[in-house]
Amino acid sequence: MSNALLLEKRGHVAIVTMNNPPANTWTFESLSLLKTMVEELNADKSIWSLVITGAGDKFFSAGADLNLFADGNRDVARDMAGVFGLAFETLSQFRGVSIAAINGYAMGGGLEVALACDLRIAEVQAVMALPETKVGLLPCAGGTQNLVLLVGEGWAKRLMLCGDRVKAPQALTLGLIEEVTPEGGALEKAIALAEQVGQQSPTAVSACKTLIQNHRTGTVQQGYTLERELFVDLFETEDQKEGVQAFLEKRAPQWKNS
User: Fold this and answer.
1) Is the pLDDT of residue 239 over 60?
2) Cα dist from 211 to 1, 15, 205, 214, 224, whole Å
């Protein structure tokens, strides 16, 4: 198996580390591996949260290696766009909570993988950008869509059309990330947040995530209907019974993710 992605499991948390020095760039193989890895984590009922970070202390990820596109081959472009999209859409659909621990530069496809996560924690020195238009390209792994959802049209256009870069403190004010940590602190904070998620029912968390992301493709009215349906569906789970009973008995619940 490739060492471009490292997987560690700590209790109910999976930690995925992009490990392709010097800039943790994505390749066809590592993107395919990410898709497979997330699918396998989805099937592992003991994993409730996923944290993704970059190896080293300079880059979270610099995205794609531009050498791949140097000869202008459309077939390569089509294949890479496809595997980028599949990998990050699979990450976005992870049934639990995904958290990006941004520990350095997050550029292009490196920012797009963070945008595919549910939450983003960035170290104070981190810099984020979607600079594809500077080299005649565009973000093709969800960036044009996901960035707008977080920061709105205006700042999405600033980053993509004007080539702006933002540092972590500004990214926080824009809503691009949810928290800033001191240098070296993103992974620890992300893991702590993932463990905090573990205090909630994993089946309820998964249902809530489905409803929150419904607005991307469905109407609000469809969301209202689905909300009621999934609420009733939770009564078929062991976690619902355990959660209510634990509350009434004034004890901590013992979740089973079932």
Assistant:
1) yes
2) 35, 25, 10, 5, 9
Which residues are annotated as catalytic? 112, 132
In the numeric block, which tokens belong to residue 80?
């890479």
In this structure, the dihedral spanned by the alpha carbons of residues 63, 69, 73 and 77, taken in order and rounded to 10 degrees, is 10
d(CA 159, CA 102): 18
CB proximity list for 136: less than 8 A, separation 6 or greater: none
- Strand 105-107: give its sheet, edge to edge: 59-61, 105-107, 127-129, 166-167
pLDDT at 61: 97
| Residue 154 zone, left/alpha/beta (φ > 0; ψ -120 to 50; rest) | alpha
Q: How many CB atoms lie within 10 A of CB 229?
A: 11
Of the chain, the end-to-end C-alpha distance in Å amounts to: 31
3-state helix, strand, coil in the chain (%, to 5): 50, 15, 30
CA–CA gap between residue 203 and residue 108 (Å, rounded): 33
Distance in angstroms (rounded) separating the CA atoms of residues 149 and 147: 5
Closest listed residue to residue 36, CA positions, set 80, 77, 87: 87
Q: Which two tokens stand for residue 90?
A: 């699979």
pLDDT above 80 for 29 = yes
Nearest-angstrom CA–CA distance, 101 and 55 = 11
- The tokens describing 94, both together, are 């992870």
75-101 in b/e form (b: 16+ CB < 10 A) is eeeeebeebbbebbebbbebbbbbbbb
